[in-house]
């Protein structure tokens, strides 16, 4: 025993049984509570947690906005499509316009060439007529000189008065028949038939019927056979106007003082008297 134990103030207070019991009860309650809480926590950890999200309610105003947005989108798509169609139409129109312009230029060029060709032919015909007129004037002067000197002459002065009127036969008849059949056809510079001719084209085609291939131009045709005088012509002879080798016109004598020739655009292929346009000379091929 402590030497101070007999002093009351130095003695440790004794715990009463009630205090001990109360403390034990509190401790037990705390432990029980912890046990329940742990069990509850374990159970809650084992169960899945489900979270529910609430979507916003589609109100009337929101629905109207959605519909309006859809209309705007549809209108924009329609506008884009319309613009695309307009662009395509414009491209097609531009392409067609370019093609039309090219065609117009082509036609204009063709018209220009035709006009130039027509002008060239007209100029050639005028030159030919002028040359014939000059030749006739020269021949007329020669005839007057011959007549004044009392010479009977054997050229143009007697042409049409003493020419042969015998009927054509054989190849000559075929040539005469051909040129007579073309009377009334058109005169076209450079024409070789079958419905339009120039002078040398008609003569060449006539002799081709009997197997004779004459040169194409009048200058060469005027020297293609034997030269004969105009007072002894026979049907089928080739008449020429101008000099031999430089003739500017030819025709075919058909008898009875007549000839057939592709004269000019005004008369076409015509049957004429030698006095209408007295020739300068003649050649015989048959």
Describe, in plain words, how this protein is organized in 3D.
- The chain is of the alpha+beta class and 286 residues long.
- The chain has a domain at 152-284: endopeptidase fold (from Nostoc punctiforme) (Alpha-Beta Complex), CATH 3.90.1720.10.
- The chain is built from five helices and eight strands.
- The strands form two sheets. The chain has a six-stranded antiparallel beta sheet with strand order 3-8-4-5-6-7, sandwiched between helices. It has a two-stranded parallel ribbon with strand order 1-2.
- It is rod-shaped, with a radius of gyration of 65 Å.
**From the 3D coordinates, which CATH architecture of the domain at 152-284 would you assign?**
Alpha-Beta Complex
**Structural class by secondary-structure content:** alpha+beta
Report the CATH topology name of the domain at 152-284: endopeptidase fold (from Nostoc punctiforme)
CATH homologous superfamily (4th level) name of the domain at 152-284:
endopeptidase domain like (from Nostoc punctiforme)
Low-confidence stretches: 41-45, 139-165
Cross-sheet strand order for the largest sheet: 3-8-4-5-6-7
- What is the residue-averaged pLDDT? 77
Number of helical regions: 5
Determine and state the CATH class of the domain at 152-284: Alpha Beta
Provide the gyration radius in Å.
Answer: 65 Å
What is the makeup of the main sheet? 6 strands, antiparallel
